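Need a sequence for this fold. Nothing fancy.
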């Protein structure tokens, strides 16, 4: 029998002959005094009550996770368990674990025992809800956890992106395009969200695929983080930058539509011309499911592009704000 494993405290209950045999190989003073005190505390009336409470929580959380995990699209089977962990068969254990690692969640691969299997330890209610959120499943804490991550891979690009709509750090972006990184930084910073994005693309061809696929991945990730959209403000924003002014009217409507009104100067911008800017926002709105009207005017291409990204970020910040629990739609769907 073993308990308090973190303190290396255990005991053996056995017949006299076996105990005598074990004593011949038992090292002297095998238990430290701190471990002995921990064991005695655990066996006290208060310690036993606490242990029983934890046991009841683990059993309840195990049932809760078992019922929820079967809804994940990449889970094949959740095996019955009487332990403090679940044995879960997935379609791809490596991909399953990689998705969880984006949320700093570690699970153990059991691929050697069964193809695609992982072992998931039962955590606290908050930890278990984060696990479900990482898998794109609704949870008890969905209202307070608006985080989502995904990997998007094509023949041209490989993108890993994670967003948290309720925190503003970190913002860490690397696409291989310095100006584009700066624009995405402006979008996240003015949107008040945490964004980590890594992209590897065929930049030896041109920037088109990288910019387009980043837009699609980012829109899809934000859509995942928004969840059911209950309580969001939904709509708004205008942002000037020196001689440039960008106005963005945005609606998280679920219906993608983009209209862009701009008289772009003839001067190009480093690695990202106006045509790619407009393509970025059209791709972004498509995967996000948003209606977006952008109007921008100015004399400097760089300033006009930057004003657009800042204004879209501010419009998103305004739309992400929670104003209650109701769905802001008379149709009952958004």
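Here you go.
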């Amino acid at each position: 029998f073993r308990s308090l494993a973190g303190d290396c405290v255990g005991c053996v209950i056995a017949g006299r002959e076996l105990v005598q045999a074990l004593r011949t190989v038992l090292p002297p003073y095998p238990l430290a005094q701190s471990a002995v005190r921990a064991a005695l505390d655990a066996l006290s009336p208060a310690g036993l009550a606490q242990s029983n409470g934890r046991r009841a929580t683990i059993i309840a959380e195990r049932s809760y996770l078992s019922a929820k995990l079967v809804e994940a699209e990449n889970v094949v089977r959740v095996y019955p368990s009487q332990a403090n962990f679940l044995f879960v068969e997935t379609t791809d254990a490596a991909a399953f674990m990689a998705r969880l690692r984006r949320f700093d969640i570690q699970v153990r691969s059991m691929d050697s025992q069964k193809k695609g299997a992982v072992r998931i330890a039962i955590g606290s209610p908050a930890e278990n809800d984060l696990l479900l959120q990482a898998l794109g499943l609704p949870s008890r804490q969905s209202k307070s956890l608006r985080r989502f991550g995904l990997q998007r891979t094509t023949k041209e690009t490989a993108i890993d992106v994670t967003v948290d709509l309720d925190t503003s750090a970190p913002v860490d972006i690397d696409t291989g395009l310095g100006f584009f990184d700066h624009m995405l930084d402006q979008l996240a910073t003015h949107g008040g969200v945490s964004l980590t994005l890594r992209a590897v693309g065929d930049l030896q061809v041109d920037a088109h695929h990288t910019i387009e696929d980043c837009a699609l991945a980012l829109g899809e990730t934000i859509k995942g983080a928004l969840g059911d959209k209950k309580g969001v403000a939904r709509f708004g924003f205008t942002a000037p930058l020196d001689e440039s002014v960008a106005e963005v009217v945005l609606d998280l409507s679920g219906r993608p539509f983009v209209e862009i009104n701009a008289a772009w100067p003839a001067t190009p911008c480093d690695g990202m011309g106006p045509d790619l800017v407009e393509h970025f926002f059209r791709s972004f709105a498509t995967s996000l499911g948003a209606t977006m009207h952008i109007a921008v005017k100015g004399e400097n291409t760089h300033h006009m592009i930057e004003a657009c990204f800042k204004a879209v970020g501010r419009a998103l910040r305004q739309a992400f704000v929670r104003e209650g629990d109701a769905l802001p739609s008379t149709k009952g769907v958004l």
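For context: The chain has a mean pLDDT of 87.
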